[in-house]
Structure formats: structure tokens, C-alpha cells
Amino acid sequence: MKIIFLSIQVIIMFFFQACATKEVEVEKIITFPQYPQTPKILYLTTYRGGAKEDKSSALDVFLGEKKSEKKVSNIIKPYGVGLQDGKVYVADTGSDAVFVIDENSRELKFIGNGIVGRLAAPVGIAFDRDKNLYVSDSRERKINGYNLNGELNFVLGDRMEFASPTGIAVDKKQHRLYVVDTKAHQFKAYDIATKELLYSVGQRGTNDAEFNFPTNIAVDQRNGNIVVVDTQNFRVQIFDKDGKFISKFGNIGNKPGTFARPKGVGIDSEGNIYIADSAFNNIQIFDEKGSALLMFFGGGGYGPTQFRLVTGVYIDENDKIIVADGFSGRVQTFQYISEKWKENNPQKYSEITAPPNLESDNKTEKK
After folding, report:
1. Residues 198-212: tens digit of each pLDDT
2. Burial code of 285-296, b = ≥16 C-beta within 10 A, e = fewer?
3. Which of 142, 353, 358, 360 has the most CB atoms around it within 10 Å of its CB?
4. Are the beta carbons of 237 and 230 closer than 8 angstroms?
5. DSSP string spanning 174-201?
6. Beta-carbon neighbour count of residue 92 at 10 Å?
7. The pLDDT of residue 75 is above 80
């Protein structure tokens, strides 16, 4: 009798565990801020991996009545993220590879898991003007570059060059690669074509152009300005394209506009700076100088628009935002509702600014 009871318990636990891993589909439009205020950020979707699953229930699979054809590889611990040509790129430090997920089909491919160009601890992601992908490997202390076919075509650095390369970014106009070396407390600029070191900035400290374990970096493609997250100094520093210090903003605190554990950084087409804070589990948006906090979105949790240990941020040329949710093993996408996006998507904009259908919501709640 005990054996039967325990077996039933195991089946129930297996069933609910399997159900818990499935992403809840969200039909309701989610924006920040919410109606009746003018929306600025639109939630799009969530990715946990790729491919599609069959309709076999967890109980069927457990009892052996149906053979599962589920071929889903889940993201474990995402950090760096990117978006190019309708594909989401995720540097997964848990599986030591880069996930490449097709936005439409959810088809999944991998980069950096082969014999040549194999990754040991992928962290940062960046793309150049020729659509090559760059990935920092903190364990191997180098930067790998891959072409559109996922083939290794670029290697920079070694254990003498970097102490711990993490965040990376590319200036597409200057054709430069910027690398944050966290344990060396600096960032370096390289010419992509020649792999020549152009300059390095930083040492450990609290003065301007000094760092305390910096982590991530982004480039304002409009003017070439470089934004570096100075994580353990609880601030962000801005430099020009030649590494000259411009300004800084932020300090330690627990209120909007301050930081507790700043990590990811992205810059939209209007120059606004997005900072992910893994302690607050939100994204704070500042103006291009960092002098004003414009808004923030997110919060702790496992639902859509919520995060658990938020890490990397990437914003493409169309202002689509990719956010790595580290502890939850997923990536969420959003859209910054810029003036350009409004002009290009008038129908969608009218939908998200329309008053909510309260009657429909009430019916859904009753069900």
C-alpha cells in the first residue's frame, strides 16, 4: 500500500513539475506605464528555448502510453543577449553555448558547441556591421567571432591579454570592438580588422575613469559614446569614442535612480540608457546623459515582465529590447515605443493605447 501511495505522489509531483515549466501564453496587452498614461514599453513574448513540443501530457509520458517527441532544449542561465535578422541570440553560461532562436518558428540552433570555436563560459554578445557574431568567453579569456553560418572566423586574446572578459560591444561605424575586463577593472578598444589594441581605460578605484569590477558595456551608435556599468562602484560612466571620460551617474541606494547591483546596459535609437539591476529585478531608463530617470519597468517574480536575477540587455536598431532573466532561465522581449515605431506601426499603436475592455476582462476572471 505504501508503495502504491508513493508512486501516486511521484506521478503527481512529476505532472505538476512538467506543467510548471510551460510558459503561460499572454493575450492581454501589457505596457509600461499602464493606461491611461501614454505607453512607452510594450511586452512582446518570452523564450525559454526552441523547437516545438507534442501534445502528450506529462502523465502519458510517465506511464509510457505515448512516446514524447518533445525536443526542447531549455536555456539554463542566460547572460548576454542579442537580436539580428529575426533571431534571438542568448549566451547561456549554464550550457556553455549560444542559443539562436528563430522569432517566428522558434527553431533552435547553437553556436560555440562544436569542436572548433567551442565556448567554455560565454558571457557577452555583440554584432558587427557585417553581421558577424562576437562572444566573450570569461573562462578561456578570449573573444570568439563567428560568421552567419556559425563558423569561427575571429579570435582575440588569451590568458595574457585578459583577466576576465565579460561585457562586449561594437561600434559599427568605427568598426571597433570594446571589451570589459572585469578583474582588470578596465575596458579595452580594438580595431576589428587588424585586432590592434587602440587604447585601454581604467584601473581599480573610485575616481573618474576608474572602476570596481565593471561588467557590461554599450555603444551609442549615433555618436560613438561608450557607456560602461561600474558595478561595484554602483554607477555608470560615459566616455567618448576615443575613451575620454565625459560623465557619470548613479550611486548605491534602494530608491529609483540609484543602484544595488547594476549589470546589463542597452541604448535605444534616441540615446536613452537602459540599466538592468539584478537586485531590484528591473530595468531603469535614463536620458542620454544619465541626468534624469525617465521610467523603470519590471519587478521580482516569475510572470511576464517580471524577473529573477535580471542580467543582460540588448536593444536593436528598431528599438526591440531583449532582456536575460538569469535565475528563471528565460529571455523576455519588449518594444520601446519610439516616435519612429509609432509612425511605422499606427494600427498596433492604436490597439495598445485603446481603453481596456473591462467587460471582457470581467468575463475572463469569472471563467
Report:
1. 999 999 999 999 999
2. bbebebeebeeb
3. 142
4. yes
5. TTEEEEEEGGGTEEEEEETTT--EEEEE
6. 25
7. yes
Contact 217, 265 (CB under 8 A): yes
- The whole-angstrom separation of Cα 162 and Cα 178 is 13
pLDDT digits (tens, 9 = 90+) for 295-348: 999 999 999 999 999 999 999 999 999 999 999 999 999 999 999 999 999 999
Helix (H) or strand (E) holding 349: helix 346-353
Which residues, listed in sequence order, are joined to residue 137 by a DSSP beta bridge? 122, 142
**Using CA atoms, how far apart are residues 180 and 164, in angstroms rounded to an integer?**
8
95 DSSP assignment? T
| H/E run at residue 343 | helix 339-344
- Using alpha carbons, select from 356, 309, 361 the residue that is nearest to residue 332: 309
Q: Which of 146, 102, 144 is nearest to 122 (CA)?
A: 144
Task: Give 253-294 pLDDT, tens digit per residue.
Answer: 999 999 999 999 999 999 999 999 999 999 999 999 999 999
- pTM of the entire structure? 0.87
- Residue 60 to residue 11: CA distance in whole angstroms: 10
Number of C-beta neighbours around residue 57 at 10 A: 15
- Cα–Cα distance, 329 to 324 (Å, whole number): 8
Strand order in the sheet with 87-92: 78-84, 87-92, 97-102, 108-111
Amino acid at 128: D
Q: How far apart are CA 57 and CA 68, in angstroms?
A: 9
d(CA 49, CA 75): 5
Please say whether the dihedral angle defined by the alpha carbons of residues 160, 164, 166 and 167, taken in this order, is positive or negative: negative
Measure the CA–CA gap between 45 and 26, rounded to whole angstroms: 8
- CA–CA distance from 330 to each of 71, 120, 258, 312 (Å)? 17, 20, 26, 11
